[in-house]
Amino acid sequence: MRALITGLTGFVGSHLADYLLGLKYEVHGIKRWRSPDDNIRHLKQRVRIHDCDIIDYTAVQGVLQEVKPDRIYHLAAQSYVPTSWTAPDDTLTTNIRGNLNFLQAIKELDLVTRIQVAGSSEEYGLVLPEETPITEDNPLRPLSPYGVSKVAQDLLSYQYHQSYGIHVVRTRAFNHTGPRRGCPFVCSDFAHQVARIEKGLQDPVIMTGNLEAVRDFTDVRDMVRAYHLALEHGAPGEVYNIATGQGHTIQEVLDILLSLSKVTIQQQADPERLRPSDVPLLIGDCSKFRARTGWLPRIPLDQTLRDLLNYWRGRLDSEAKGVNWEQYFESGNMSYDKEGQVQT
Q: How many CB atoms lie within 10 A of CB 259?
């Protein structure tokens, strides 16, 4: 089975590559030439990497024509919500045109393939308390340019399935985190700050934004397993929430990380970290996806956060010693067995 992962160098893309390799897939990945490759240094001898800007249709078509993948996991995107406020044009162009290019290239090349389009819970946006847990039928009221771009990807994918019969499975992933998550994202930002404070690189104060927002967190290692199941067992044209069904405030996340710290740390609000409008409540109903695939999350949030904190501790330790931190954290504190099951 030959798989193509867009956004291979990203947080989720690198974990998905680890998972598919464990299932004995032939893995190809797309990256932009300027994208850092820290997450995939341990994979370079095991995957084939294609330099490609997803907003360049000719380049996308060329990669698909060369690879002829059986499965496509479309993860590449401008995925940081705050950036979408400062760079809305770039967010909309990258996410919508990039998605369109893949759908159109599949159509033009008449490829027999399946494509998973990674949507987001941010598509739901403004959710009323009585609407939780959120089902796939909930109204889409996005509250950020990023959310709008994901709604557009979602509906474009549905349209291409209906119009041209392309085997598209749409997923709406709720928040996910774990080792390798970039600093701008809240769990990793907090964990990185804790690790820096423990090493004396930062005053013992964590800067915070909105701590009242409620989010549904899934471990990335459970998430990539869900993405694989979506393409193998999901109905073409359908959309599926992927979530645990449990909500946690951002304050709870911070409290868990502080409880794991070796030092006493204070917290301080930073107005610069507040968004123009924030989604107050996102808890997902995943029953449709579970009924179709049998998927269940296996890794609890406290373990996810512990692994994430240890990831940053190890990275800072090895950087301080002037050595390549990937030799200690090649697989982000995890591995997969021969059946592709996660081992932690």
A: 10
**Distance set, CA 23 to CA 5, 18, 40, 242, 299 (Å):** 15, 9, 18, 21, 20
pLDDT tens per residue, range 145-178 = 999 999 999 999 999 999 999 999 999 999 999 9
Summarised one tens digit per residue, pLDDT across range 236-246 is 999 999 999 99
Q: What is the DSSP letter of 144?
A: S
Could you give the domains of the chain? 2-178+218-245+283-298 (3.40.50.720)
Instruction: List Cα–Cα distances, 194 to 185, 209, 215, 230, 311, in angstroms.
Output: 14, 16, 21, 35, 12
- The radius of gyration of the chain's CA atoms, rounded to the nearest angstrom, is 19
pTM as predicted? 0.91
**Which pairing describes strands 248-249 and 214-215: parallel, antiparallel, or unpaired?**
antiparallel
Q: Is the dihedral of CA 318, 300, 184, 59 positive or negative?
A: positive
DSSP 132: P
The single-letter code of the amino acid at 118 is A
| CA 27/CA 5 separation, integer angstroms | 8
